[in-house]
Design a protein that fits this description.
By secondary structure, the chain is an alpha+beta fold. It contains 5 helices and 4 strands; from the N terminus they run H-H-H-E-E-H-H-E-E. A 4-stranded antiparallel sheet has the order 1-2-4-3. Strand 1 and strand 2 form a beta hairpin. Helix 1 packs antiparallel against helix 2. It is globular and about 50 Å long.
Length: 163
């Protein structure tokens, strides 16, 4: 059984989470202000992202590596969630651009565009920390923040330090 077989796609997960988070966020903004509300949501989602990475890493029979991570991308792309152009993919690099992001579209439609980066984009770097801390993500722009595309550049930094 593959690591993604039977798993709910990430877009569907994020919609369910956003439906729960939205009223909580609105109450936090009302009672504590936008900055504090965003800090609380950001902290909570960041912790969840690391734990999600750890969860998927623990399911890898030979331990996590970049190839296993690449295989997981199917979950993020499920339900036509992303239009991706792979630039390079080998044992130490996984580089791709996202030209359409239904996550960003969904958050905007739900009235959560101002925290979409907290609910989705900020998870990416933290997920990989939980999954395999030897891998580093560099990304300088996102569709969520108005760029023409997202530029994901994953690189294995220390092959010898397998978790």
């Amino acid at each position: 059984m593959s690591a993604v077989e039977g798993e709910l796609g990430i877009l569907a997960r994020r919609r369910i989470e956003a439906e729960i988070i939205k009223p909580i966020y609105e109450i936090l903004v009302r009672d504590y202000g936008k900055d504090k509300a965003q800090a609380v949501i950001g902290e909570a989602v960041a912790g969840a992202a690391v734990k999600a990475g750890e969860y998927f890493a623990a399911r890898e029979p030979n331990g996590p590596d970049l190839a296993g991570f690449v295989a997981l991308q199917e979950l993020w792309e499920k339900d036509d969630a992303l239009k991706v152009e792979v630039i390079a993919s080998d044992a130490t690099h996984f580089d791709y651009d996202v030209h359409r992001c239904r996550y960003a579209e969904m958050y905007r439609e739900m009235g959560l565009g101002e925290i979409g980066h907290l609910l989705s984009c900020n998870r990416d770097e933290l997920f990989i920390v939980g999954y395999d801390p030897r891998v580093q993500l560099t990304r300088t722009q996102t569709l969520m923040e108005g760029a023409s595309h997202c530029n994901f550049r994953y690189q294995v930094k220390d092959e010898a330090a397998k978790p």
